[in-house]
């Protein structure tokens, strides 16, 4: 009797063991999934590819694609904040990895720790250690990275450069000597767009002027913003600005890239989403129709930024959101997305044969270069600094006073508690 | 008597719900914003469910007007003044001009009126997008002369970095005294006719003294900043001002046209019989009669000029020192830099400026009513 009972238990346990994984696998997700991002326009197709993958696996989930347009997320972030303050978080939202996420949402205790997901899915080994450190704090890991972008890239059209008899400059000194020549030809030496692209240019110039070590020291609070090194960077930046288009503030980054494509401008410094724009939207062949180089004086340095998705506390459809995070962290999802978006996968095992020539070269650089964080895209500093920095940049564009802006930056850094 | 008090009670009960709602949702929130503007809510962890807030008094305001990092805000404030003045002058001037033309009853008056009023129907964000395209440096207005075989214009309507009428913010106190003197003298001149003695004693006299002091002794006053900071009328705002005038002159036209139609034909005929020309009829009869309309147009337009957020956002984007506006700065400070306290302080400053337009109007209305 006892034996048979034991047998029964054993059989029952066996059935349970067999059934449980099946149940959890077959558990059909349903309801809604609201994904909040700023990927519209040229970045839209990449997001759609991810959503398609998600729908294949979870056909019953109604995906709500809540995009708010605007370069580098200016508008989306504001909308997100009003929603979060009103206690109405989306299921998952896009965020720049690094201080922008940590300084805003993690410090406010609004994010769920995703360490469990990283362990479950084997992502601890799939993503580079350095990256995991940047998206986490001592209390947990806060987001799933989807992309790695490089911000310090100089873009040009080889055929045009040949026509004008110049080569892509390796240093800013070289740029400053060829720029007058280009201006004489009626060409804008460096195409520039609205204000955030100016911040973007600044970080490349500052990295060139300071070097990777001092750049890192700056954000660790070990190098002051009003030190002569930084003033020098601002001065160089002022010299370079003289060779940009005067109508910059009324252009979008795509329009600045268009200036290079159509031959109105010689160069443009933009992140590698410009490669996605040129190859996906404009159907140009990388390496042939457009060329690239590390922005002057920064070869061997990879200034990175990363888009990622997090899980806000109190997400209305938590299970659906976790399934979404699993897709974007997976190899297939990552490769499907990044090939279209024009970025490289943060995963170390990604299938490079799917990527175009530019991205393959970027992936190779990412593995060997010194990796530093971007300011304009949220890795280096929190939002208090970033918001204030945009205002300081306006001040500089108006006054061109390197001393004053350096001083202002230091005040801002104190206020934003940089390196503390 | 009992009937009357019952009526009063009824009136009070009818009004009670709106009194409560307005009390909470208007004045309660204004009070809350004032409170927030005196705290240090911002920075890391500002978006927590229960963020840390400490009372710091008027520090945020002091920082806005004299702090090193807030020079952008000060430029925006100066811009806002120019936006207001230009929009008022432009929209009222052009609107009145069109109204006078239409008052002559030309053929197809109705159609013309609809055409002129139509821009009002567009939202700011739509007209902003249209005008952004029209005023693009390489397109729109600038290429118009090429159709006549002339070289294209190269004016940077929305991205020019030039400024005119610059002044130094360091002399904040002096400027403030000038404004006080100006206002006092203005009130004095206005009151001079009715009670000359009082006017000179309370308004004109002090006004002149303060003005003279600011003029002669200005250099002795303490300076607000430790370095020179110039602000002026940015030429890049011209594009936005043109777009706003385009949108709102139809509205003032409609107001004036309704007013002109309301003036009885007899009055006009009488003026004409007395030998008034068309010009002097408008100058001496019609326009003075429409003073209430002018006043309400001024108040509404100045409020619109303080809310010029979307059109600037659509035409030149959020970060643009040349065309900045305090409303935009408030938004960016609050929702991008997470500096909620500073954002609230900017909101209160804007609120005060708005009150400067509306309070004198309400007071004068109230006085007229009690007198009449």
Classify the oligomer. heterodimer
Strands across the major sheet of chain B, in which order?
1-2
Strand proportion of chain A: 5-15%
**What share of residues of chain B is helical?**
55-70%
Unreliable spans of chain B are none
Rounded Rg of chain A: 24 Å
Please summarize what this structure is.
The complex is a heterodimer of chains A (about 425) and B (about 375). With about 425 residues, chain A is of the alpha/beta class.
Index terms:
heterodimer, A: 420 residues, alpha/beta, five-stranded mixed sheet, four-stranded mixed sheet, B: 372 residues, mainly alpha, two-stranded antiparallel sheet, 2 strands
Task: Tell me about this structure.
Chain A is α/β, with parallel strands linked by helices and 420 residues long. Helices cover 52% and strands 14% of the residues of chain A. In chain A, strands 2-1-3-13-6 form a 5-stranded mixed sheet, with helices on both faces. In chain A, helix 2 (44-57) packs antiparallel against helix 16 (331-341), helix 10 (195-210) packs across helix 18 (383-399) and helix 18 (383-399) packs antiparallel against helix 19. Chain A is globular and about 95 Å long. The model of chain A is unreliable at 21-26 (pLDDT under 50). Chain B has 372 residues and is mostly helical. A two-stranded antiparallel ribbon of chain B has the order 1-2. Chain B starts with a helix and ends with a helix. The A-B interface holds A 74, 77-78, 81-82, 84-85, 87, 103-105, 107-110, 194-196, 246-250, 382-384, 386-388, 390-395, 397-398, 404, 407-408, 411-412, 415-417 and B 42-49, 51, 68-69, 71-72, 75, 132, 136-138, 156, 158-159, 161, 227, 236, 316-322, 324, 331-333, 335-339.
